[in-house]
Amino acid sequence: MKIGIMGGTFDPIHIGHLLLGEFAFEEFNLDEIWFLPNGNPPHKDAEEMDTSLKHRIEMVKLAISGSPHFKLSLHEAKEGIHSYTYQTMLDFHKMYPGNQFYFILGADSLFAIEKWKYFKGMFTTCTILAAMRDDKDVGDMKKQISYLKKKYNADIELLRAPLLEISSTTIRKRAAMGLTVHYMVPDTVADYIKEHHLYT
């Protein structure tokens, strides 16, 4: 199978995440997209994590419930241990040797990937799908892809997806102010945030 991997804190998961997964699924003829909520991301302090892992997992479940090709993976859902992408991809490569993996990331991450821990380990286990923010980025994106391919023999493809100015930070701020987050997240997630008084 061809599996797309969408990692993140998903605090909360929003429409932008889902659209990115859907466009990757269609453009690269993938069989499934796995959403991996990260229990203890190395780039965030504990106090930055506004929401418990349990709530974040539940919101991912609600968000993807209507799409049979969207799956939840709890591989990185460990609160006491930092999860690193290179290790997760190595694990998947060993656990599912018959699968091809496609790691989906944004343009910012593509330019910062050399700062990731043991990032070279990723390149032997998966194809990177790098999402463009808009057409103005095409030239810079292609240069960065060419550079990483040449230096590390990385397998990287451009993923053309719609640009949505939605962030989890904005959603949390709106919820904290009592403003609606409908249309930014699936209705089921908006209802869950309200029901459990998240971010208030």
Can you give a write-up of this model?
This protein is α/β, with parallel strands linked by helices. Helices cover 40% and strands 16% of the residues. The protein has eight helices and six strands; from the N terminus they run E-H-E-H-E-H-E-H-H-E-H-E-H-H. It has helices at 15-27, 53-64, 85-95, 107-112, 120-123, 138-152, 168-176, 187-195, and strands at residues 2-8, 32-37, 70-72, 100-106, 127-131, 156-159. It has a six-stranded parallel beta sheet with strand order 3-2-1-4-5-6, with helices on both faces. Helix 2 runs antiparallel to helix 8. The chain is globular. The N and C termini lie far apart (41 Å).
Secondary structure layout:
Blueprint lengths: L1 E7 L6 H13 L4 E6 L15 H12 L5 E3 L12 H11 L4 E7 H6 L7 H4 L3 E5 L6 H15 L3 E4 L8 H9 L10 H9 L5
Parallel strand pairs: 1-2, 1-4, 2-3, 4-5, 5-6
Helix pairs in contact: 2-8
How many beta-strand segments? 6
Write the element-wise H/E pattern from the N-terminal end onward.
Answer: EHEHEHEHHEHEHH
Profile the largest sheet. 6 strands, parallel
Strand content: 15-25%
- Average the pLDDT over all residues and give the rounded result: 90
Structural class given helices, strands, pairing?
alpha/beta
User: Number of helix segments?
Assistant: 8
Low-pLDDT residue spans: none
Radius of gyration: 17 Å
Q: Based on Cα principal axes, name the global outline.
A: globular
Query: Which strand order does the major sheet show?
Result: 3-2-1-4-5-6
Distance between the termini: 41 Å
* Helix proportion: 25-40%
